[in-house]
Amino acid sequence: MSDQSITPVVLSGGSGTRLWPVSRALHPKQLLPIAGERSMLQATVARFATPAFAAPIVVGGEEHRFLIADQLDDAGVAPSAIVLEPAGRNTAAAIALAAHQALAADPEAMLVVVPSDHVIADVAAFRAAIATGAPAAAAGGLVTFGIAPSAAETGYGYIEAGDPLPGLAGVAQVACFVEKPDAATAAAFVAGGRHLWNGGIFLFRADRYLAELVDHAPEVAAACAAAMADASRDGVFVRPQREAFLAAPSISIDYAVMEHTTRAATVRVDMGWSDVGSWSALWDIARRDDAGNAFHGDVVAVDVAGSLIRVDGGPAVAVIGARDLVVVSTRDAVLVVPRDRAQDVRAVVDALKANGSTRHTTQPVVHRPWGTYETTDRGDRFQTKRLIVKPGGQLSSQMHYHRSEHWVVVSGTALVTVDGVERIVGENESAYIPAGVQHRLENPGKVPLHLIEVQCGSYLGEDDIVRFEDRYART
Amino acid sequence: MSDQSITPVVLSGGSGTRLWPVSRALHPKQLLPIAGERSMLQATVARFATPAFAAPIVVGGEEHRFLIADQLDDAGVAPSAIVLEPAGRNTAAAIALAAHQALAADPEAMLVVVPSDHVIADVAAFRAAIATGAPAAAAGGLVTFGIAPSAAETGYGYIEAGDPLPGLAGVAQVACFVEKPDAATAAAFVAGGRHLWNGGIFLFRADRYLAELVDHAPEVAAACAAAMADASRDGVFVRPQREAFLAAPSISIDYAVMEHTTRAATVRVDMGWSDVGSWSALWDIARRDDAGNAFHGDVVAVDVAGSLIRVDGGPAVAVIGARDLVVVSTRDAVLVVPRDRAQDVRAVVDALKANGSTRHTTQPVVHRPWGTYETTDRGDRFQTKRLIVKPGGQLSSQMHYHRSEHWVVVSGTALVTVDGVERIVGENESAYIPAGVQHRLENPGKVPLHLIEVQCGSYLGEDDIVRFEDRYART
To answer: Chain B partners of A317 at a C-beta cutoff of 8 Å?
Structure first.
C-alpha cells in the first residue's frame, strides 16, 4: 500500500428481509436509519473517517444507486467509486469487483471489507483491530476479524482460532471455520474461548485476494476480471460489463476462498458488534426502559415488558398485556411477532411474494434521483401523490396517455414546462397537465419543492410514461 | 296499546369504548358495521320490521344525529322520532324521554326498549319472547328479558327468576337482580338454571314506566317531564329542553326502577344474544376457521390460532406465532391485545384521553350531513382531504381566514360558488378558493361527488370557518 492508507470496501448488496416491513428490497436495511439517526451505510462509512483510510469503494445494486450516492453525499463522504452489481452474485464476486477497482488506482492497495448493515458500538476497538491485522495482511495474509461471542448464538458461523502467528502480535492462525452450530455446540464454543463469531469483515491486499480467487474459485475470478476490463464509468458510478459478470457463480467469500486458503488469519475483537439480523437483534442493542421495552414513535403500552414496538410512518400502536413481543407499524403494513420468532419474518415475506403483493419490495415513499414521491390516496379513477423535488432536481420530460395531472405547489417554487411553454408556479398556485401533452417539472430554487399531484384517468400505473429526455439517463 | 302494535325504543347513546380503535366517541360501535354488513343500529331496527311493531323511537346523542338519520334512511326505516339527548344521563332518563314521546301519540303506548349495539342471532325467538311478555306488560308489569346463559360470565348482571306468574304462560316473577358475580358464583348460577343474564331489554306500557319512575326516581321523572314539555321539534328530531334535562341524575333503569318496583317480571329467552362488549365477545360470535381464527381484510398469518385479526381501513397486518390474540388495524391506530385482556382496552382509551389525543373520539373519516371527509395527508402549511358529497348535498356557505383551497373534482359534478359567482366544475377540472373569500360547494348531480381538496395556509384547523348560511342549521 503505497500511501499507507487502507481502502474500505463497503458491501451494500443485502436485502434485509428479516427487518420487514421497514426494510424492503428497494429500500433495504442498510439504507435506513434503523439503528440510529443515520442510515447503517452512513454509520459504516463514518467508521473510516480518519487519515488511516482512503476514500471508500461501495459495492451495491443498480436499483439503489441514487440512494447510495445521496446518502454518502449527505454524510459528507466522497467515495472513490460506487460499483454497481448488474445482479447479486454474493460476496466473492462483489469483493473481486472492488479489488479490481482499487488496483487500477494503486497496485498495492490494501482493502478492509465490511458489510454496510452491521452495528459496531466501539469504533476505536474496531480501528485498533485493523491496525493489529495490517502487518499480517501486508505480508500476504487474509485476515478475518473474529468477534468475541457474547452469547451462544446459533445464527452465526464461527471461527476457531489456532496458534498465534510468530512475530505478529494479536494475530492467530485460523484452525477452521465452523458452520452455524446447534445450541449445545454453540454453548461449548462460548465456554471454550477459542471460537469467535464470523462477522464477515476482512483485511487483505487486493492483489492477494484476486490471486487466491484464481486458485480457489477461478470462474468467479475470470468473470469479474472480464466484467471490470469492460466496465463503463459514469462519474462515480462503475458498471461492470453485465454478461461477463452474470457468468460468475454466486458464492460467498467464505466458501470460495477463506475455507480453502492457507493464508487465513484472525484477529480477535470485542467491539459491541451486531449484525442487526432480525427485530430481536435490534431489541438486543436498543436502549430499553426498566421493563425491558424499546419504544419508537407514538406508542401506548399497558402492562408490556421485554418488547420492541416501533412506529415507522404507520399508525400509532397501542399494546396491552404483552411479553417479549415485536410490533412494527408502517404506512402499508403492520407486523406482530414474538421476539423469539423474529427469524420467521422471512416466512411472511415469502407469503407476500407468493401472493403477488409488492409490500416486500416497495415502500410507500419511493426515492428517485430528483427526490421522492409517495401515494397518499387512491380511489376509482384517481390517485393523490406528494412529491418532494430537491433544489435543482428535475423530473424527466414526459407524457402520459391515460391520465391528466393537477399540480398544487404547497411549498417552494416549481418550474413547469407544458407543451414547450415554461412557467414558474409558486406556493399556493397550481398547474394542469392534460393527458397526451409533453411536460416537465423541476425545482429551480434553493429549498425543497413540495407538490401535491392529483392524477385523474382510467389507468394510473407508473408504466404509463413516455420519457423524452432525462438528466439521470433513464430514457 | 290502542292499535295493538308495540313501539320499539332504540337506545343509541353508548360509546363502545372497548371496541376501540374502530369504535370512537363520535362514531361509536352501534353506528358501525362491526358484526356484519349493516351497522348494529340498522340490524337492531330490522328486528322490528313486522306489523307487530310501530315505527321506532330512537334516542341518541346530538353529535350522532345525522349518522343515525342517514343509517335509518339507508335501512328503509322511518322512525317516528329521533330524540336527541342534550347530554348522557343514562338509561332511566333516556327511556323516560321516549315514553313521553310515545304517549303524545298514543296514551296506551307499549314500549319494547332495546340497546342498539347488541347482536341477536335468532330474531324469531326474540319476537316470540316479546309476544310472550306482552300480556304481562299490558297488565301493568315491567317485563325484562332474561337471557339463558351460555357461559359463567362475570361481566353481566344476572336476574334470578322466581315463581311463574299465574295465568301468564312463560312469564315469571323476578326474585331479585344480582350484580356482576365472581367466577364461582357465576358458575353456580349457570349450573342452577334459575339465573339469567340481564341484557337490558324491557317491555312495558309507557305510562306504567313513568308512574314507576315518579315513585322510585322522582328527580329523573320530573326532569324528563319538564324537558319534554318544552321540547323543540325539527322534522324527525326532538330536542328535549336542555337545562331541564340536565337536572336529571345519571342512573340506569335497573337501579332507578327495576330493583325497586313490585311489578318486575321476566321472560326467559335463548336467542343467540351478545352485547359485543369487547373484541373477545366479537371473536365469540364471529365465523372462525379451523384454527379458531377470525380474519377480516388484508391479513397474512403464519402459525396463528384462536385470534381475531381485523384490518378496518388501516395497513395490512402480518402476524406470526400468535395464540388467542386480537389485532385491529385502522388508519391512525393499531391495537394489539390478548383476547383475555380485551376488557382492558378501556385503559388505552383512558391513556389517550389523559394524553390529550383525539384518537379515541374522532375517526379519520368524518361524517357530515352532506357526506364525508377524510384527511389523507398533512404537512407543513398544507393538508389534503378527500371529500364525498352526496347527491343534493350542500356544504355551508363559508369563508376561511387562514387558508386557501384547491379543489379537484375526480368523480361526479360540483356546483361551486366563489364570491357570488356560480360555476359547474366537472370531472378532471379544478377550482381555486382564495383565503378570505366566501364560497360554497354542492353536488347538483345524481351520483356522489368525489373531490380532492388541497389546503394551503398557516393555520389549518377545522375551527377556521365562518359560516354564513347552512342548510343543516349549523350556523
So the answer is: 333-334, 336
Whether A127 and A170 share a structural domain:
yes
B104 vs A149, B83, B235, B408, CA distance in Å? 83, 13, 16, 49
Q: A337: which strand partners?
A: A326
Task: Measure A411 CA to nearest chain B CA, in Å.
Answer: 8
Q: Which residues constitute the domain of residue A301? A: 279-353
- B320/A337 touch (CB, cutoff 8 Å), yes or no: yes
Taking CA–CA distances from B385, the nearest residue in chain A reads A377
Q: How confident is the model at residue B472 (pLDDT cuts 50, 70, 90)?
A: confident
Residue of B nearest to A381 (CA): B410
Instruction: Report yes or no on A474 lying in a domain.
Output: no
Is A359 an interface residue toward B (CB < 8 Å)? yes
Q: Which residue of B has its CA nearest to A355?
A: B300
Ranges of chain A whose pLDDT falls below 70: 1-4, 475
| ipTM computed for the complex | 0.88
- Stretch (H or E) spanning A408: strand A403-411
CATH number of the domain within which A84 lies: 3.90.550.10
Are B386 and B290 within one domain?
Answer: no
CA distance B170 to A382: 60
Q: Are residues B178 and B38 in the same domain?
A: yes
- Alpha-carbon distance values, A175 to A92, A181, A292 (Å): 21, 16, 39
Q: Which residues of A23-62 are buried (b: 16+ CB within 10 A; e: fewer)?
A: bbbbbbbbbbebbeebbbbbbbbebbeeeebbbbbbbbbe
Measured CA to CA, the distance from residue B347 to residue B278 in angstroms comes to 13
- The span from the CA of A417 to the CA of A398, in Å, is 10
Residue type, A380: D
State whether B306 and B328 are in the same domain: yes
A378, part of any domain: yes
| pLDDT score of B27 more than 60 | yes
- What is the rounded distance in angstroms from the CA atom of residue A369 to the CA atom of residue A367? 7
pLDDT of the residue at A28? 92
Note whether A336 contacts B319, CB cutoff 8 Å: yes
Partner B contacted by A334 (CB < 8 A): yes
| Contact check, Cβ <8 Å, B344/A359 | no
Q: In this structure, are A348 and A395 located in the same domain?
A: no
Q: Which pLDDT band holds residue B134 (cuts at 50, 70, 90)?
A: very high
Residue length of chain B: 475
Q: Do A380 and B411 touch (CB under 8 A)?
A: yes
Last residue of a domain, one of A241, A274, A307: A274
Interface of A with B in 30-89 (CB under 8 A): none
Amino acid A86 reads P
Residue B333's nearest CA partner among A333, A318, A297 is A318
Residue with cell 462477522: A199
Q: Which of A328, A353, A378 is the last residue of a domain?
A: A353
Residue A153 covered by a domain:
yes
The DSSP H or E segment spanning B245 is: helix B242-246
Number of domains in chain B: 3
Q: Which of A382, A450, A459 to mutate to test the interface with B (most CBs of B within 10 A)?
A: A382
Q: Model-level pTM?
A: 0.89
SS3 B398: strand
Task: Tell me which residue in A329, A330, A456 faces B428 most closely, judged by beta carbons.
Answer: A456
Query: Å from B180 to nearest chain A CA?
Result: 24
Q: Check whether the bond before B21 is cis (ω within 30° of 0).
A: yes
Q: Is residue B1 part of a domain?
A: no
Nearest-CA distance A188 → chain B (Å): 30
CA nearest to A393, candidates A366, A363, A413, A423: A413
